[in-house]
Amino acid sequence: QVQLVESGGGLVQAGGSLRLSCEASGRTFSSYTMGWFRQAPGKEREFGAAISWGSRTYYADTMKGRFTISRDDAKNTVYLQMNNLKPEDTAVYYCAAVYGRYSANREVEYDYWGQGTQVTVSS
C-alpha cells in the first residue's frame, strides 16, 4: 500500500509560479511511475504529466513547455514545477502512482492517488 500526500498548492496571480510536491510512503518508490492529474471545476480529471521509474517524462499538451515534472527517489517525492500560470490552470491537482509500468497517462493505469491540492490562478 502506498500513501501519497500532495502539498504546495495555493493562490497565485497569472504569470506566477508554484511547485507542487507529492511525498510517497513505502520503500520501493524508485520502481513507481508517478503522475500528476488535475480536475478543473465542472470538468473531468485529466492527465498532466508523468515520470517513469527511469525518469522518462511525459506531458499533456496543456502542460508541455510551462510545467516540469521531476522526482527525488531519495526523498520519495515527485514534483511539478509550474511556471507562467494561467487562470485556466485553476484546478485540484492530484498525484498518482503505479508500480512497474514504464509509462501511464490514463487514470485507469494508476493504482494509488493522493487527496489533491488546490491551485487557484487569479487574472
Strand elements, count? 11
Rg, rounded, reads 13 Å
What is the average of the pLDDT values?
A: 95
Our count of helices gives 0
Structural class: mainly beta
Unreliable stretches: none
N-to-C SSE string, H for helix and E for strand: EEEEEEEEEEE
* Biggest sheet architecture: 7 strands, mixed
First and last CA, distance: 40 Å
Helix content: under 10%
**What's the shape?**
globular
Could you tell me the strand content as a percent range? over 45%
Overview of the structural elements:
This protein is mainly beta and 123 residues long. The protein is 0% helix and 50% strand. It is built from no helices and 11 strands. The strands form 2 sheets. Strands 2, 4, 5, 6, 9, 10 and 11 form a 7-stranded mixed beta sheet that branches. The radius of gyration is 13 Å and the shape is globular.
Outline of the structure:
By secondary structure, this protein is an all-beta fold. It is built from no helices and eleven strands.
List keywords for this structure.
mainly beta; 123 residues; seven-stranded mixed beta sheet; 0% helix; globular; single chain; four-stranded antiparallel beta sheet; 11 strands
